[in-house]
Amino acid sequence: MTPIRHAQAAVRAGRAVVGTVAGAGSAVTGVVHLCRGSGAAVMRRAGADRKRLVRWFGADAVRDLPDRDPAGYLMRRAAYGPVVGAVVAGVLAAALGYASWALLLVLTARVPVLDATVALIVAAIATYPAVRTAVLSGRWDIALALRLLGDDDTASRVRELERTRAEVIRAIDDERRRIERALHDGIQQRAVVIALELGRVRRRAAIGDHALVTDLDRALSQTQALLTELREVAWRVYPASLDEHGLAAALRELSSHTALPVRLDLRLGAEPRRDVAAAVYFVAAEAVTNAAKHSGASGVDVTVTGPRDDAITVTVSDDGVGGADPSGSGLTGLRRRVAALDGALTVHSPDGGPTVVEARIPCVW
Known about the structure:
The chain is of the alpha+beta class and 365 residues long. 69% of the residues lie in helices and 10% in strands.
């Protein structure tokens, strides 16, 4: 073993000793919190002990555990932590004291060098099992934390499904953004160029063939209609203002894309996460679009409130004829999008109206 590796091993051993001795105090403190019966304090104590394992034993695997059973973890640590810490500290203190005493005697010429060397060897021999005990204690603590503070197999699977489900939603929204940019920067720009060229040709033909002028007017009108439809498609795929200016700005654009008057009541305390903002927006947009197409309403109200109880709520109501089908493709798609964020969507639409669509989405602000 090279000198560098010797030094690294010595550092790891020293950190293990410190971590084990600190763990003795941590175990005693854990018993105190368990006796007091404070669940929050027990949770904090388990979290603090995980930090000890990360700091002194380099156990990154326990850094972000959900602390599933903190009381069980602290109880088991209390059974051996104080004893192991006290033994390690006592043996090392005795060995260090014995070695220091031997050095003092040899420096003052009160014992032969050979006797002092033997004493140092004995101290070193006593130190080794204490250090090994500290290392093994740390490994045991790490294994215990992984078993009791980590997820069981079912919970781990659920957490993985939640993570992948959220990633799917983000991937869909990212793809919507790419489509919107392609429509805006590609197809729409080409349509603008065609419209400009047709306008130029029309002006040049105005002094000649009137039939040609009529045809060009028709082509120009069709091109302008195409541009309008492209803008609508791009807006429905994903509104650029949602990323550029936030949820409130995107919701204010709803009225410009529907013939119905849209009355907004926005009570947003902060801008939500991007995936939550997108879900809120599409719930409002789909509900407004449905009201404009099918309800015969004279207006629609959109209310967005949050944060309240760590959730954001969007409510869309109209004064139309009602009878909306909750199992329709549009509302089913919205329900799945909201459910992917652990939210819930409800539709109340009796015959004769009114129709009320409400979504409540958990949100970390």
